[in-house]
Amino acid sequence: MRAVVQRVTEASVTVEGKTVGSIGSGLMVLLGVEQEDTEKDGAYLAEKLAGLRIFEDDHEKMNLSVQQVGGSILLVSQFTLLGDVRHGKRPSFTQAAPPQEADALYEDLADRLRQKGIPVETGQFQAHMEVSLVNDGPVTILLDSRKLF
Predict the structure, then answer these.
(1) Which one of 14, 55, 79, 122 is the catalytic residue?
(2) Which of 68, 80, 115, 126 is catalytic?
């Protein structure tokens, strides 16, 4: 799984003009699920996202997690994170998991985060979405469960 994680003051996602997910302060997470990903990858990302210390403490040091600051997570599926442009200029998405598998792992990650007490909003899987956010900092972190194993 690949994730682009942004610290935000607010974020939302709309589908066909209707807001389907919205948060205030917290993390905007764009998630790509690869063919070989399993629940183990989701467990890894849930731990990382819950404990990622990218919020400032009283001394203006990035020392606090989304849990510690009482923030939320907006989790949005984005298979284009897996686009491979090493050959040519048109991305290849052959490494992306099939939709049914990707959706199940996406929902599993959302559930794991909720079980940790983090409010989670989501986009709409396989829909054309419009994402709005205010990146705070800006702070953007890349996570890849494949780089762990």
Answers:
(1) 79
(2) 80
**How confident is the model over 60-90, as pLDDT tens digits?**
999 999 999 999 999 999 999 999 999 989 9
How many angstroms separate the CA atoms of 86 and 84, rounded?
Answer: 6
Q: Report pTM.
A: 0.95
Residue 111's nearest CA partner among 23, 55, 34, 50 is 50
